[in-house]
Each structure stands twice: as structure tokens, then as C-alpha cells.
Design brief:
The chain is mainly alpha-helical. It has helices at residues 6-30, 38-49, 64-76, 83-103. It has one domain (6-108). Helix 1 runs antiparallel to helix 4 (83-103).
Length: 110
């Protein structure tokens, strides 16, 4: 059973996570950043999904784990490589990274 002090903290973290997800969704679909290389990454991922060999016919600085994580993300959103699915996968990754970091902080190690 959780202590009464942890319940408000959990609710606060859940609300913060929901607000962060909404802001990330809005920002990713409302503007274009100067350093965006989304199209280049999508081409490499799409070629990999269609059976081309990584580092042979696909030039990339990213290793196999990157492509494995993208494969899992795209499988979750329907398997289609598009700008919308790329941004949704990116938002999910960014939101989960913050969630994972908050869970590994010293206060949860007690």
C-alpha cells in the first residue's frame, strides 16, 4: 500500500507528464526547426524496413540499436514511415526518457 504522501506526488507527476506530452505534440506539429534532418532519417529507416543492409547500402552514423528502437516505435503506430508517425514516435521517446530519468532519481532509490 502506498503512503498518503506518495499519492499527491504520483498525481503531480502524472499531470506533469500529460502536460509535457501535450506541449511536445503541439510543438512537433506546429513548426519547422532549422536543424531538422527528419527526412534524411526517415529515408534510412524506410530503406532498412524494406530489407536494405545497414552500413552497406544505408549510410548512417547510428548503430543497430537505433534502428531496433525505431522498428519497435513504428510497429506500435502502424508500421508506416511518415512525418506524422516519426513525430509521434519522437514525442513518445522524449516523454518516456523524462519519465525514466525521474524514476531513477535518488528519491526513488530509498
Amino acid at each position: 500500500m502506498q503512503s498518503p504522501r506518495r499519492i499527491p506526488a504520483f498525481v503531480s507527476l502524472a499531470l506533469l507528464l500529460a502536460a509535457s506530452a501535450l506541449v511536445a505534440y503541439w510543438r512537433s506539429f506546429s513548426r519547422m526547426v532549422v536543424y531538422d534532418d527528419e527526412g534524411t532519417m526517415m529515408i534510412g529507416i524506410d530503406r532498412f524496413f524494406h530489407g536494405q543492409v545497414l552500413f552497406d547500402s544505408i549510410r548512417s552514423i547510428y548503430g543497430p540499436f537505433y534502428y531496433l528502437s525505431k522498428w519497435l516505435g513504428y510497429a506500435a503506430v502502424g508500421g508506416v514511415v511518415s512525418h506524422a508517425s516519426t513525430r509521434i514516435c519522437g514525442n513518445f521517446s522524449a516523454t518516456n526518457t523524462g519519465n525514466d530519468c525521474s524514476r531513477s532519481s535518488p528519491q526513488y532509490a530509498q
